Amino acid sequence: SACKELKSSRMFRKLLEAVLKTGNRMNIGTNRGDAHAFKLDTLLKLVDVKGADGKTTLLHFVVQEIIKVEGSRVSNHNPNSENTQNTLRDEVEFRKLGLQVVSGLSGELTNVKKAAAMDAEVLTNDVAKLAKGISKIVDVTKLNELIGGVFSDFMKEFLKKAENEIANIQAKEGIALSMVKGLTEYFHGDSGYNKEESRPLRLFLVVRDFLSILDRVCKDVGKINERSMVNSDRKSQTHVDQGVDQVLFPRFVEMQKQQSSSSDDESSSSF
């Protein structure tokens, strides 16, 4: 269930896409400026990249950028609106709606968080113990066949059911670990699973920790937007947008302007 949740999550893919684009724009002109992918561990480092104020992190910035798009998508906004006042009010509403979508990711990936609490080695050992226990019961039952009686008959009935159940559990274990391997390769490439083979469920740990960070950042962004959007006139709104972008992450905005001609094409791409 965790594998299916993570692979099918549109919002998670959108966040990965936003992080990749932001990283490429900030690193344009360097050997890291044209990346096609990144390791999921990078998600945990986004809060280490601080803006000029020393408080706002790169993840704050990514969330601010994505909630505008998500809010507009949810509300089916008409971008050709000519009423400035309405547009400013829309901007406030878009951010609120978009923030709800992004902050809902943690609730969307509940099985991912449950899987992160599991230990694959313990799980495998438990299944092996069950199978070994059944084999011991088989030996005991064979000995009691010489004696016969109710116990022997009862255990024969039990073994028929138990052996089928254990076989089913072993099959499901194999399927689950195979799906985890496929998911790891999906996000990390062909070599990803080999590196994590000793800890196959680590992928879920990384995502769980990221979701915890994302929850905190979404709360921060909500408070920031409430404070900064009290006045929704053109002057204050312009100041807010410039304050977040140009003051805190000026290099990103500079790169964004340089790439404005190709931004429409980029926005349609997928991670």
Fold and architecture overview:
- This protein is mainly alpha-helical.
- It has a single domain (1-234), classed as Methane Monooxygenase Hydroxylase, Chain G, domain 1.
- The protein has helices spanning 2-8, 10-26, 58-75, 84-103, 105-108, 110-116, 120-145, 150-188, 192-195, 202-228, 234-247, 250-258, 263-267.
- The radius of gyration is 26 Å and the shape is elongated.
Radius of gyration, taken over Cα atoms and rounded to an integer in Å:
26 Å
Low-confidence stretches: 78-85, 233-247, 259-271
CATH superfamily: Formin, FH2 domain
Helix and strand pattern? HHHHHHHHHHHHH
Distance between the termini: 22 Å
Biggest pleated sheet:
none
Helix count, DSSP H or I runs of 4 or more residues: 13
Strands, total number: 0
Query: In the CATH hierarchy, what is the class?
Result: Mainly Alpha
Quaternary arrangement of the chains shown?
single chain
Q: Which structural class should the secondary elements be placed in? A: mainly alpha
Domain count:
1
Name the helicity range.
over 70%
Do you know the CATH architecture?
Up-down Bundle
Give the amount of beta strand, in percent.
Answer: under 5%
Quick description:
The protein has 271 residues and is an all-alpha fold.
Summary tags:
single chain, 271 residues, mainly alpha, Methane Monooxygenase Hydroxylase, Chain G, domain 1, 13 helices, 0% strand, disordered C terminus, Formin-like_plant, FH2_Formin_sf, actin filament binding, Formin-like protein
What is the topological layout?
Elements (H helix, E strand, L loop, with lengths): L1 H7 L1 H17 L31 H18 L8 H20 L1 H4 L1 H7 L3 H26 L4 H39 L3 H4 L6 H27 L5 H14 L2 H9 L4 H5 L4
Helix pairs in contact: 1-6, 2-3, 3-4, 3-10, 4-10, 6-10, 7-8
